[in-house]
Amino acid sequence: MKLSTKNQNQLKESLIYTCISCFVIFGINVVRSQNKIGMFDGNIDIGVCKIKGYSDYSEEDQTYKISGSGTNMWFGEDDFQYLWTTIQGDFILRAEVKFIGKGVDPHRKVGWIVRNNLDDNSKHVNATTHGDGLTTLQYRRKIGGETRELISPDTFPDVIQLERSGNTFIMSTSKFGNELKSVELPDMELDNSVYIGLYVCSHNPDVLESAEFRNVRIIKPVNPDFTPYRDYLGSNLEIMDVESGHRKIIYKSAHSIQAPNWTPEGNRLIYNSKGHLYNYELSTNSITPLNTGFAVNNNNDHVLTFDGALLGISNHNQDDGGTSALFYMSAEGDSLPKMVTKPGVGASYLHGWSPDNSKMVFTGNRNGIYDIYTIDINSGAENQLTNKSTLDDGPEYSPDGEYIFFNSTRTGKMKLWKMKANGEEQTQLTFDEYNDWFPHISPDKKWIAFISFPKDIDPSDHPFYKHCLLRIIPYNGGTPKVIAYIYGGQGSINVPSWSPDSKKIAFVTNTN
């Protein structure tokens, strides 16, 4: 059909208008996308900054660089470069920071700041470290009011954490590798909905100072009245370079995901969620279900053999009152699970394999007490290795099969131990006030990685959603060193999770 000239013109006008509308809408979305800087909504110079600041984000290594000028952040107003986003309610902010270059003014500042708004005289709380090492929790209680500070005993930290719990703000800092030192500010009233972010202030209007931030985390903690094993937070699947402590989030889930295994080939992780197991392909970042047949009530105690051929699982056996029982299957999911423990013997939780694939080592509830056992996968014959009235848990074979490492409350705290594979020569390895769980031996037999729960918890409990530390000690024992500060706990690192080259660890952290 041939259109008249008038109709042709109307059609052209309609198409042009439609294209312009689409372009405008699309353009707005592009601008919004471009303004987003990593996890932050944008950046801005607060106050009158003589030299314009800027903020950059590296997608590859998930690090931020901020450059800012500004006269000061004190008295009744502030000048600084702000990389910000918004949040409501309680939170935990954490980052590792270092100044770039020697700097000019010893009072240059860097850290986290929480504000009611983007005005230069806003009420705020500011966790900061200075160029001369001074570390303070600064605050302004009223608009345009004087800035006050609480001085930390810590100096020159590179880990800065700022936590809000109602009207209480807690700054925790550390030199990376050490435990955190805290300063608390009570009765500080800020809005429920606030701006949060990282900043740099040069303390000199004619100078632009820069800092780099890595392992940046914004965490929404659990509600205090949550019910464990019913109420769950979302999860971050992370990989850490052990030598440097640098971490990357490779997957975020609104579900509770737990306990990543690293396969011996190094190409995938296996984790559990809601009773099922999943493959995470590292090269493609793709996720697929791992077929476990009838076993769809798995807890987070799943372990690969050293050669990666078999996968052991702890599945809650519905034919035995939902009791956790041990099974094994092909690691590829192409065979049905075979039950190893006998029905009615009691709950059994897998933690390791012997190097020859003939035995599992596990924590078993026999006669009301949890001790450590091995079991022959063919005969089902059990061999008890520990016999204490206190809890023994988390057993794992050394790669050569000579030792079994485990954790025990027999001294009053949950600490790491090792014993000969036959149960003899039981020797304590860690001794401080933390509660240490789940020793994992690096494939090269140089290190033991483990999770340390807070000092004030029940030693027999490894709860969800706590401030925990990932630490390492040498294979033969020694002083623990912190390699990660995490919000997590149960499910973070329950199973062996070293990379085959002993350079990386996979684990899970949590946020709402």
Q: Give me the CATH fold name of the largest domain.
A: Neuraminidase
What is Rg? Answer: 27 Å
Q: What percentage of amino acids are in beta strands?
A: over 45%
CATH architecture of the largest domain: 6 Propeller
Number of strands: 39
CATH structural class of the largest domain: Mainly Beta
Task: Quote the distance from N terminus to C terminus.
Answer: 59 Å
Give the overall silhouette.
elongated
The description of the largest β-sheet is:
7 strands, antiparallel
Structural class: mainly beta
Unreliable runs: 1-33
Number of domains: 2
Quick overview:
The chain is mostly beta strands and 512 residues long. It is 6% helix and 48% strand.
Helices and strands, with pairings:
Layout: H1 5-35, E1 42-46, E2 54-58, E3 63-68, E4 73-74, E5 77-78, E6 80-88, E7 91-100, E8 109-115, E9 124-130, E10 135-140, E11 147-151, E12 159-165, E13 168-174, E14 181-185, E15 193-201, E16 209-219, E17 234-241, E18 247-253, E19 258-262, E20 268-273, E21 276-281, E22 286-290, E23 303-304, E24 310-317, E25 323-330, E26 338-339, E27 348-353, E28 359-366, E29 369-376, E30 382-384, E31 392-397, E32 403-408, E33 415-420, E34 427-428, E35 435-441, E36 447-453, E37 466-474, E38 481-488, E39 504-511
Antiparallel strand pairs: 1-6, 2-3, 3-16, 4-5, 6-15, 7-12, 7-16, 8-9, 8-15, 9-10, 10-11, 12-13, 13-14, 17-18, 17-39, 19-20, 20-21, 21-22, 23-24, 24-25, 25-26, 27-28, 28-29, 29-30, 31-32, 32-33, 33-34, 35-36, 36-37, 37-38
Protein described:
It contains one helix and 39 strands. Strands 1-6-15-8-9-10-11 form a seven-stranded antiparallel β-sheet, with no helix packed on it. A seven-stranded antiparallel β-sheet has the order 2-3-16-7-12-13-14, with no helix packed on it. With 512 residues, it is mainly β. 6% of the residues lie in helices and 48% in strands. It has two domains: 42-219, Jelly Rolls (Sandwich), CATH 2.60.120.200; 234-511, Neuraminidase, CATH 2.120.10. 44% of the residues are buried.
